[in-house]
Design goal:
The protein is built from three helices and 16 strands. 11% of the residues lie in helices and 56% in strands.
């Protein structure tokens, strides 16, 4: 009898302990989001007067995980605006979102990160040095107000859909149109990634055309090196008929040690019938990155811009980019 009582007590203790551990794992927990991008740069030749220190962008926020499935995140983006003097700093809400994840399904709602080039940006991996191609040349916005869903069908394939306002996170919803996007991500081999995306941003107003985006990306990443290539096409840029733009980006990086790596990238932007020739260009960057502890990165690099406008001179500059974040 005593043996049975002891065994029953042990089983009860084990059950209580297991429940306590489950309850502990369900306890809400959060983390601060702090990221700062800065640089010192100097131009050469015709760009010699363009030099100085710059705080490009700061992200401040908090992410709170309510349980295994539900989390919330809010992030402020403090940067500069094209509408005012660079001496002023403008603060925007970059993210104000709720995420729900259940097995292979993930849902996001609110002011969310868009899916148009988020995958390419993470694969490139040097956002604090230079934006990915579509972000750099304004093919779309990195965040917007709406809903997105991602479903992982198998280890090698997932699909995502998004519907947002289409005006980005820096503007209020002014027009009635919406921006729709569908994407597929394939991993046929370990380290090899293929990404296809198509989007439609409604013009919604008389005289404004729908903006259509198509993107294809392929990249390979392993412990020692990364290579990637993407092609992007945008029809009716700024909702203007026949104002098409396209271009490609090639990049690679390799690790020299745990704290040092080198990277290179080449971009080529062009427009249909040269309608945007004054802004079309080829651009290249070559540099290194050094990790100074867990939270700080320093990246010296040299850049060259080759404008396609008639009579425009090539531009050369040197940068030392810095990152702090956790």
């Amino acid at each position: 009898m005593k043996t049975k009582v002891i065994l029953a007590g042990l089983l009860a203790c084990i059950g209580i302990t297991a429940q306590a551990q489950d309850a502990k794992s369900e306890e809400p927990k959060g983390k601060a989001i702090v990221q700062m991008f800065g640089n010192f740069h100097s131009g050469f030749g015709a760009e010699n007067d363009d030099r100085g220190f710059e705080l490009e962008r700061s992200y401040l926020g908090y992410e709170y995980k309510l349980n295994k499935e539900l989390s919330v995140k809010g992030v402020m983006d403090i940067g500069k605006s094209n509408d005012v003097s660079d001496y002023q700093r403008i603060a925007y809400i970059k993210n104000a979102m709720v995420s729900w994840k259940k097995e292979n399904l993930t849902l996001n709602g609110g002011l969310i990160s868009t899916t148009q080039f988020n995958f390419q940006e993470k694969f490139w991996g040097y956002r604090y040095i230079m934006k990915s191609f579509q972000d750099q040349y304004k093919f779309g916005s990195s965040a917007d107000l709406g809903l997105s869903a991602t479903y992982k069908f198998a280890n090698w394939i997932s699909a995502d859909a998004i519907i947002v306002n289409g005006e980005g996170y820096k503007k209020i919803q002014k027009n009635d149109g919406l921006n729709y996007g569908l994407g597929v991500t394939l991993t046929p081999l370990k380290g090899l990634n293929v990404r296809l995306y198509g989007g439609l941003n409604e013009g919604s107003e008389s005289g404004k055309e729908d903006i259509k985006n198509l993107a294809a990306f392929i990249g390979y990443k392993c412990e020692t090196f990364t290579v990637g290539a993407e092609y992007n096409y945008m029809q009716n840029a700024s909702n203007k008929n026949d104002a098409d733009q396209s271009g490609y980006s090639l990049f690679a990086s390799t690790k020299l040690s745990k704290s040092a790596e080198v990277y290179a990238r080449f971009d080529d932007l062009y427009s249909k019938n040269d309608w945007n020739k004054s802004k079309d260009e080829q651009a290249a960057i070559l540099g290194a990155q050094f990790k100074l502890g867990k939270y700080v990165k320093v990246a010296p690099n040299v850049r060259m811009s080759m404008p396609k406008a008639d009579g425009a001179d090539n531009k050369y500059s040197a940068y030392v980019n810095c990152y702090f974040g956790f």
